[in-house]
Amino acid sequence: MKDGTDFQAWLLSETLLAALLGAILALFLTNPALRTHYDLPQLRLVLQTTMALGGLLVALLAAARFSAEGRRVDLLLSSGFLVSSLSAAAFAIGPQFGGSTLHPPEGWAALLGGMLGNALVAVAPFMRGRTRRRDWAIANAVAAAGLVLFVAWSILRDASTSLPSLSPPPGQQPFYLTGVLALQALIMLVAVVGWGERFRHRGDDLARWLALAFTLMLFAALQLVFQPLLASTSVTQGDFLRMIAYTLVLIGAWRAIRFAEFGRAVAEERARVAREIHDGLAQYLFAVSTHASMLESGSAPPETLKRLKEAALLAQQEARFAILALSSASGTAPFDSALRRYVEILTADGALDVELDVDPTIRLAPDEQIEIFRIVQEGLANVRKHAHATRAEVTIGMRDDDRFVTIEDDGEGFDGELSSAGQGLRNMRARAESIEGGFSLRSTPGRGTALEVVLRA
Prior knowledge:
This protein is an alpha+beta fold and about 450 residues long. The protein folds into 3 domains: about 5-270; about 280-325, no CATH class; about 330-455, 2-Layer Sandwich (Heat Shock Protein 90). Helices cover about 65% and strands about 10% of the residues. The chain is built from 13 helices and 7 strands. The protein has helices at about 5-30, 40-70, 70-95, 105-125, 135-160, 175-200, 205-225, 235-280, 280-295, 300-325, 335-345, 365-385, 425-435; strands at about 35-40, 235, 355-360, 390-400, 400-410, 440-445, 450-455. Strands 3-4-5-7-6 form a 5-stranded mixed beta sheet, covered by helices on one side. It has a two-stranded antiparallel ribbon with strand order 1-2. It is elongated, with a radius of gyration of 33 Å.
């Protein structure tokens, strides 16, 4: 981490939380008379269902971040929560919705499925690197875990007569059940350490929330080690600890996926700007270089200098617009200024009169500003080169609830469908579609041309 302040604050909160939970656990252990569970089957079913749905939502959010960044840590995180949620739904919640009691095979399968899912989550923070093939990675991981759980459940069902109950009478808990519950607590401890270390080294915001959540789950698991009670009808303080833990995980996952989507949007926007610089600024700079070379080779200075100056002005305009594209400033003032400057350069020789009307209240997203600028640029270039027009009008405004852009000219017009028109019109349609805008064109020979782009709400 660049700054250890966040980690120190997290470590303090983690220490206080562990001390508080440890004190509560010690209180219940030293006072056996204190009631630790309540026979509330409906409430337990609600809590189990809520946690399963919460785990499923966390899995979907982690999968979304995995699709955006392709990191293995998110692959295991999504797979782990999905396995835990599906095993709980299939073996713990489903049978109760059917009206039957939870038999030992289903209870053990739900316990082992939860442990397998938690183990995947605990291993996740130690993973490095990214996965190239993302399409079926999570599905394959979950399918493999599901196959393991199905085989385990089949074996447990065949051995159902010898399986011990998960809620044995006090003092009669078999040693291997204690061992399984202790292993579950160990998995939680590994998760706390792993996610804490990841937060310390990488500053991953999601790791902070996961470490806190698994601290709650750790003490819920320790409670089962010392006070085993896994009956399907009972509610304990551990169930509420797990519920709070899932809430913390949901908060962290939501924050993480929002950051991932923002990061991907920034990367896409910068890639778009790089393409714009290549297609625009680089071409004008090449023109400047070409005309400078012509001067060196002895071409007529007056005409060459005029073209050189025009190319330099256009290159300057492109550079300003590239800065606009990289800027995060809201509103349309920089966009408006860039567009007016382009119109000034285009009409400097007096061959074409352009009236530009931009509604100052309209709001355009950065990607919309870029594409609309290019559409207007392409449209006016077509008017100047092909329409033989003397006047053009560009309007960017509101009509009812729609934002629109229109370019109209008094040129010659043309006849024919857009599909048979020039490359410039096809480019404008493609740009409009890239910002989810509707594109329409109306042209009549001898009566000019009008095109319109209607933007998304």
